[in-house]
Specification:
Elements: E1 4-9, E2 13-20, E3 23-26, E4 36-37, E5 40-43, E6 46-49, H1 51-55, E7 64-65, H2 80-85, E8 89-92, E9 98-102, E10 105-107, H3 109-128, E11 134-139, H4 145-157, E12 161-167, H5 168-177, E13 184-191, E14 196-204, E15 207-216, H6 221-240, H7 249-265, E16 271-281, E17 288-296, H8 297-303, H9 305-321, E18 331-335, H10 342-352, H11 365-378, E19 385-389, E20 394-398, E21 402-407, E22 412-413, E23 415-421, E24 430-437, E25 447-455, E26 467-473, E27 479-485, E28 490-495, H12 504-547, H13 552-569, H14 575-600, H15 615-618
Parallel strand pairs: 1-11, 11-12, 13-18, 15-19
Antiparallel strand pairs: 1-2, 2-3, 2-4, 5-6, 5-7, 8-9, 9-10, 13-14, 14-15, 16-17, 19-22, 20-21, 20-24, 23-26, 24-25, 26-27, 27-28
Adenosine monophosphate binds near residues 267, 337 and 341.
């Protein structure tokens, strides 16, 4: 079976790994780095991904997309906070979803995520020397149905066969527990760039059983950056007499970067200085403004207090749902870059009463675990069984706008549950099944995953029809719902696709566009390579010409081909033109070299005699003009 990779598609950074000789290993990207920033930049026709995209962000704030994971699978009305914070433009899509607007061209979050996936996979394919087509991709345990589906679709758009979507904390536990003997109860505390997950698992003899999971899909390291930005901007506003730097996208982007840097420094230092020269213009004097602020760890901890408070509740919830006390947890694994913040580690210690395990690399362990699962699914890893749970309850809306649960949260998946419902009115010809996800008792407070209709119910008194609703959650945590009227056997079903997930046709179109883009990218690279080799040949020819004299014919031929190379390299030339010019140049250069020896041995040439412009500068020591 073909090799399959594991991918941690992170809010801030992404990592790709594979099984090698029985152990998962991280694959470096083309830049030689083990993590790739989850950043995509659009520059004219060009798309940049990773470090290069991140590096040019300040100069191209509106064309650089960060943290797309915060938008994936979400509806426009759910992401108003995120929209305000993004330095790039985010608009409402035609379907109530979210689009990134790059100079008028709209991209779905799935497409942007696909660009990141493609970079990871292309680089890894090159590294391995074989094309990768299969992957396991991780998502926060707390991702809902549409976020999971959207992530699967991103994989499809990137041309991948997504073998499985697995939860990040579960993946971390897989990597951690792969070689463990004996039973252990583990709590994974995963605080990444944008999401927070807590998962409690039982590990023993290759069986990884998730007992419970809880979290917050809107809490992560970048909220800490944001807290710093708010403080910086507010302070600056006070001190500058009202200049709000947040209004300027470029200034905002610079502050976000500086805030993240300061936060990371404060994981090791107790004090740091944020300094941003020329951050804006004084509205009155029109002189440049300079932002310089000292930030101590204590002040930082004060700024992030509201965020730190929010990590407690999910930990307590996960313990309660697993029916365990903190003391029964044997190991605490820290996952995600934001767990490097000392105040976060402190909270973990306080809530769980023990030192976290420091043997796992919080940046890489999720991808490593995904690679293990990819190995399980392709047969290269044996004797590992993963039993995961659904993080949120799933149900239907029933009379009085009530949410009736079919599958409670923390049920082991895959699972299938049925329940029978009936009609509310006499001779009701159809029912609408409204599928809900969430823990709230009223339908309107939960996430609506979609609606579907079952019609053709034969005329019956209210309460008589028996309508069996079945929910089927697959191993990816994705729901398929069916409804069946028992007397007729008539069925209706949906694989949940609400407004935020893409239709098959849309995915198809995006796959094609992405492929076309990849093709265009490859062509651009090829043209660039052709130009490069022509230019290299030109430089070499110029050097030879400056060092050696040849016959006048050879010289004028070479000069002509050099001039042509010059103009082709500096204009929009076709690949064919570039190829033939390179060939011409190489052959003119060979003729020139032959002319050199001919004139050296007293042959036909007399180029040393003049006509070269400045022969004295270029004559080789052993060059003898023809007599
Ligand atoms: P992840 O999603 O796991 O890649 O986590 C990324 C988050 O971790 C980002 O918000 C980073 O700023 C943050 N992070 C990475 N390294 C550190 C560090 N040394 N101290 C504090 N936060 C960090």
């Amino acid at each position: 079976m073909a090799k399959a990779v594991g991918i941690d598609l992170g809010t801030t950074n992404s990592v790709i790994a594979i099984m090698e000789g029985g152990s998962p290993v991280v694959l470096e990207n083309a830049e030689g780095e083990r993590t790739t920033p989850s950043v995509v930049a659009f520059k004219g026709n060009e798309q940049l991904v990773g470090r290069v995209a991140r590096r040019q962000a300040v100069l191209n704030a509106e064309g650089t997309v960060f943290e797309i994971k915060r938008f994936i699978g979400r509806r426009w009305d759910e992401v108003q906070e995120e929209v305000k914070r993004a330095p790039y433009k985010v608009v409402q899509g035609p379907d109530g979803g979210v689009r990134v607007d790059i100079a008028g061209k709209l991209y779905t979050p799935e497409e942007v995520s696909a660009m990141i996936l493609r970079k990871l996979v292309d680089d890894a394919s090159k590294k391995l020397g074989e094309k990768i087509t299969k992957a396991v991709i991780t998502v926060p345990a707390y991702f809902n149905n549409s976020q999971r589906e959207a992530t699967t679709n991103a994989g499809k758009i990137a041309g991948l066969d997504v073998l499985r979507i697995i939860n990040e904390p579960t993946a971390a536990a897989l990597a951690y527990g792969l070689d463990k003997k004996g039973d252990e109860t583990v709590l994974v505390f995963d605080l990444g760039g944008g999401t927070f997950d807590v998962t409690v698992l039982e590990i023993g003899d290759g069986v990884f059983k998730v007992l419970s999971t809880a979290g917050d899909t809107r809490l992560g390291g970048s909220d800490m950056d944001q807290a710093i930005v708010t403080w910086l901007a507010d302070e600056f506003k006070k001190e500058s007499g009202g200049v709000d730097l947040r209004a300027d996208r470029q200034a905002l982007q610079r502050m976000i970067e500086a805030a993240e840097k300061a936060k990371m420094e404060l994981s090791n230092l107790t004090e740091t200085t944020i300094s941003l020269p020329f951050i804006g213009l004084d509205p009155v004097s029109k002189t440049p403004l300079y932002l310089e602020k000292k930030l101590t760890r204590a002040k930082f901890e004060e700024l992030i207090q509201p965020l730190l408070k929010r990590v407690r509740q999910p930990v307590e919830q996960a313990l309660k749902d697993a029916n365990l006390s903190a003391a029964q947890i044997q190991e605490v694994l820290l996952v995600g870059g934001a767990t490097r913040v000392p105040a976060v580690q402190q909270i973990v210690k306080e809530v769980l009463g023990k030192e976290p395990n420091r043997t796992v690399n919080p940046d890489e362990v999720v991808a490593l675990g995904a690679a293990v699962q990819a190995g399980v699914l392709t047969g290269s890893v044996e004797d590992v069984v993963l039993l995961d749970v659904t993080p949120l309850s799933l149900g239907v809306e029933t009379k009085g706008s009530v949410s009736t649960v079919l599958i409670p949260r923390n049920t082991t998946v895959p699972t299938r549950r049925s329940e029978t419902f009936t009609t509310a009115d006499n001779n009701q010809p159809s029912v609408e099944i409204h599928v809900l996800q969430g823990e709230r008792p009223m339908a309107g407070d939960n996430k609506s995953l979609g609606r579907f209709k079952l019609d053709g119910i034969p005329p019956m008194m209210a309460g008589m029809p028996q309508i069996e609703v079945t929910f089927d959650i697959d191993a990816n945590g994705i729901l398929h719902a069916t409804a069946k009227e028992k007397s007729t056997g008539k069925e209706a079903s949906i694989t949940i696709q609400n407004t935020t997930t893409l239709s098959e046709q849309e995915i198809d179109r995006m796959v094609k566009e992405a492929e076309a883009n990849a093709e265009a990218d490859r062509k651009r690279r090829e043209s660039a390579d052709l130009k490069n080799s022509l230019d290299t040949a030109r430089i070499q020819a110029e050097r030879v010409m400056s060092e050696k004299q040849s016959t006048p014919e050879a010289k004028s031929r070479l000069e002509a081909t050099i001039a042509k190379a010059h103009s082709l390299v500096n204009s929009d030339s076709s690949d064919a033109e570039l190829r033939s010019a390179t060939e011409e140049l190489v052959s003119a250069l060979q003729a020139y070299e032959q002319g050199v020896s001919a004139s050296t041995t007293g042959g036909t040439g007399n180029s040393g005699q003049g006509g070269t412009g400045k022969p004295e500068d270029v004559i080789d020591a052993d060059f003898k003009p023809a007599d």
